[in-house]
User: What shape does this take?
Amino acid sequence: MKKTGKILVVDDNAGIRSTLKILLPMHFGEVQLIPSPTVLLSTISSFRPDAVLLDMNYKSELNTGNEGLYWLSEIKKNFPAVRVILFTAYADVALAVEGMKRGAFDFIVKPWENDHLIEVLAAAVGSPKAKKEDKGTPAAPAMLWGGSEQMRKIHDTVLKIAPTDATVLITGENGTGKDVLAAEIMRLSERAEGPYVSVDGGAIPETLFESELFGHMKGAFTDAHADKVGKFEAAHGGTLFLDEIGNIPLTLQAKLLRVLQNRTITRVGSTKSIPVDIRLICATNMDLRSMVSRGEFREDLYYRINTMEIHLPPLRERTDEIRPLCEMFIRQYAQKYHRKVSGLSDMAVSLLESCSWPGNIRELQNCIERAVIMSSSPTITPDDLSINPAEIKSSSPSPSVQGEVDTLEGAEEKAIRAAMKKFSGNLTLVAKALQVSRPTLYSKLKKYGI
Assistant: This one.
């Protein structure tokens, strides 16, 4: 079979270059090796490789942070179609994961296995070079309702209020999915076919607040080179989601209230009132009632925005949603990072369900993203999960000598006991479900007295 594909290797280790100079030509059409990234861009320009195997660190005086990430950025900026595989020592795996998020195709840890190295390079060479780069952040997950009493009540409420134009205030901790719930309300509403405009109220500078929300006219201020449609006007006929409303300064709340009362906006630099027909959904992680009592949030605005108030409970109170959320994130990131990962072991699920997740769904999503990148098998196991032991909830019915903080062993014991119950003590099935060998399972059973 004719060998195809052009590979460029960049590594300052002469021994590694010598080894790859022998190995790679056995599998690919053309291979070029250079010891320094100083000629990297010019070499790519002349050699036109399909993939670059890029070392993460060099003996240069480059003073821009990690060199691998710097040169990855330069390659993606100048040659976006070229696939980059990061070549890293085990100690730099965290940097390699960051590189994956910045557009690297994959990473190889030194010392490498030849078969794995060839497999990754072959995948990079075989991938469509003209494929559109994924520059956006992962899409928000679909709304998962779970089976808890709290979520059932919220679901019932949403079904009742979605078809109306009632203003909704969604409260809850950061990362609980307030934006997802807002989008779900819009999807079920009479305005589903209209525009959906999302605004982070806390991210808008005070000096640009009116311009961003209400628009401006050409020449209204310096750099106003053209007329601009504001967020309210853009959402006309649809839904406006105003996130982090508790962060809007008190001085600007009166202007927001006036628009909500009159349902008209006036662009900066104009005297013409423009009617706006919107359904408003707001969200916050703050206690607005307390802010009102302290004079930090206008009472009249508070009552204007919470015709209906929905509080989203934290993920630690919605553990039945963890597995389906993880499965959804696995599908998303397996596709994004070209990983053959399709599920989680029961022990991994048990460990995930035992965590307190202070960052809620957003933290869980980041955990699964990293696990998909790090996993070397189709099934994510506890070893693939970066779990902080301090975030593991107690699995004991009453406080132990360790207080309310359980250990990784506690989560492991819980998973084993659950599997033993599920498979009626069949050790072969239990070992298979937990992704461990039978001797390892015997050892664990003895350790926990099961």
